Predict the 3D structure of the following.
Amino acid sequence: MASVLSYESLVHAVAGAVGSVTAMTVFFPLDTARLRLQVDEKRKSKTTHMVLLEIIKEEGLLAPYRGWFPVISSLCCSNFVYFYTFNSLKAVWVKGQRSTTGKDLVIGFVAGVVNVLLTTPLWVVNTRLKLQGAKFRNEDIVPTNYKGIIDAFHQIIRDEGILALWNGTFPSLLLVFNPAIQFMFYEGLKRQLLKKRMKLSSLDVFIIGAVAKAIATTVTYPMQTVQSILRFGRHRLNPENRTLGSLRNILYLLHQRVRRFGIMGLYKGLEAKLLQTVLTAALMFLVYEKLTAATFTVMGLKSAHKH
């Protein structure tokens, strides 16, 4: 039994990773636009398509895909860890009964914490590689020069110490609520729909995935802005308390943002983020559901935790 469960978790993990990589590749330029809007406050263009047109005009046609490989590899690891942890915990805790919304939230939260602690260094490197060579409007930003993923790790450890790889961990831990909320709504909506019909269509899965992600993103967006700024780590801000993006830094950044842009400043880049994450999450869940179903059919296994 245990081997089947761990094999199942593996299938879920691989399907989750493949789903997220497919979806992220399709909507990657939207993420580039969102990151610029969050980190480079001096940018005049407020809308997603204007920022993308600006980036293409100034930095070339492939610029919206800058940093694609590190993002995809980080995402692949990250989703693998998340789906594996989520499904293993669910198998152990729910043991074939119907899950509840509360359990889904707790399992999602624990899976998220494990994921953050293991994969934050990848995301720090990622954010920097993605912004390398970008033309910033903000003069306070110190440019970087990394040759690739390994070189970035090496330079960050050498120049800023090993803890710099966990920059932004604190907001990331708070942001664990994002996938937890997303999974809670996703599983909950799925359960509601399955009461009414036998099987969910592709469109059902796509819409549920989109709604779940839209709620989670809007709730947690201000923390995501802070997380991007801390991970990028090139803003000259109080250097004495850089450890793990301490609470003081987070409050300081939130306060700065509100003072300069008003309360809406916390939501700068939200439409790009919503457009990208909602479409990405919906497509990811769709690929994920189809892949797990197909794999279990091929292997002649019934999923042990049909919800």
About this structure: The first helix runs from residue 2 to 39. Residues 237-244 have pLDDT under 50 and may be disordered. The chain has one domain: 5-297.
